[in-house]
Amino acid sequence: MGHTYINTNDGCRLNIQTSVPFDCVRPYPNKAIILLHGFAGSSEYFCRNFDQLEKGVDWVVCPDMRGHGHSETSRGGYHVARLAMDLKTLIDHMRHLFNIGKSNLRQELQIVAVGCSIGAAILWTYVELFTCADFAGLIFVDQTPLQDAVEIFGQNHPDSWDATKHHKGCFNEATLQAAQKAWIPYSPDRWNTCLALVNECLGYRQNNPLKEVPAEDKDEDFWLFCRIADQCDGQWLARLMADHTRYDHREAIERIDVPVLVMAGGLSGCFPLDGMLETARRIQASERKEMEGKVAVSVFEDAGHWLFYENPNRFNREILEFVNKWTK
């Protein structure tokens, strides 16, 4: 994977990891996987996935979203919709590169996007803004379509959203403000915030009896993810969290009309399984004939929120199986 940069329409410079250089002179592959990392993450999250995915699909692309990794942090832009627009810029650029170099005029670039955590929310917002036309398939990894609790309609109302579905630690104004304060720069709790993030997102730190991890590996994991989180501007993250937590994607999900795979960590410290499965239920409930047999669920019983890191072989295999099934 090499590094390159693109500029968004508001002038923010984004770092992109790509298996095929953006200045390539040969024709580009007609299949591509886009990997979208989660909150306080970066493209480095997928360090255990790149090699295997490249062997199955030549073109693998992974951006650092703005405010993360080696991408710039804009003064504003801490909204999921802004991040979806950044993804649109990346996809348009990829299509431009593909169309310039293609030898078969009938061939189209087929993109499968994999959204992990807030990356899934970016994809749901993308669908709401731009439809599914740019995708051959969508994969959502360990994210509920709404993080906040919704109690105003009453317990049995279909739009209510309780503890069986909402985020386990950030789901109302009080818990949101506590999370925001923890991410603010120079907070005395900032280091503890990074530690809490790692403990929340790695399944083996949830007292997993199914997996024994050597102490040196635990230390390596801790320093990797803490270093990545520490690259982010905490105040910018705090504002992004407010938008992300309150954003309700449930109706947007019902508009999805391409094949979908929902992946969930059975030991996720972030979300209840029932909330993550709502994505599949919403699409299936639409009873559209074109979606019959096109929605699948995969639960990683022995992994947490970062299941792509804890069980990379299975993750990579299932991603490639999905791509090969739904692309030509």
Characterization of this structure:
The chain is 40% helix and 14% strand. By secondary structure, the chain is α/β, with parallel strands linked by helices. Strands 1-2-4-3-5-6-7-8 form an eight-stranded mixed beta sheet, sandwiched between helices. The two termini are 24 Å apart. The relative contact order is 0.16.
Which descriptors apply to this entry?
alpha/beta, globular, eight-stranded mixed β-sheet, 328 residues, 8 strands
How would you concisely characterize the structure shown here?
This protein has 328 residues and is α/β, with parallel strands linked by helices.
Blueprint (SSEs and pairs):
Layout: E1 2-7, E2 13-18, E3 31-36, H1 50-56, E4 59-63, H2 80-101, E5 110-116, H3 118-130, E6 137-141, H4 173-183, H5 190-201, H6 215-230, H7 234-246, H8 250-253, E7 260-265, H9 273-285, E8 295-300, H10 307-310, H11 312-326
Parallel strand pairs: 3-4, 3-5, 5-6, 6-7, 7-8
Antiparallel strand pairs: 1-2, 2-4
Helix pairs in contact: 2-3, 4-7, 5-6
| Average residue pLDDT | 90
What is the H/E string? EEEHEHEHEHHHHHEHEHH
Biggest sheet: strand arrangement: 1-2-4-3-5-6-7-8
User: Count the strands?
Assistant: 8
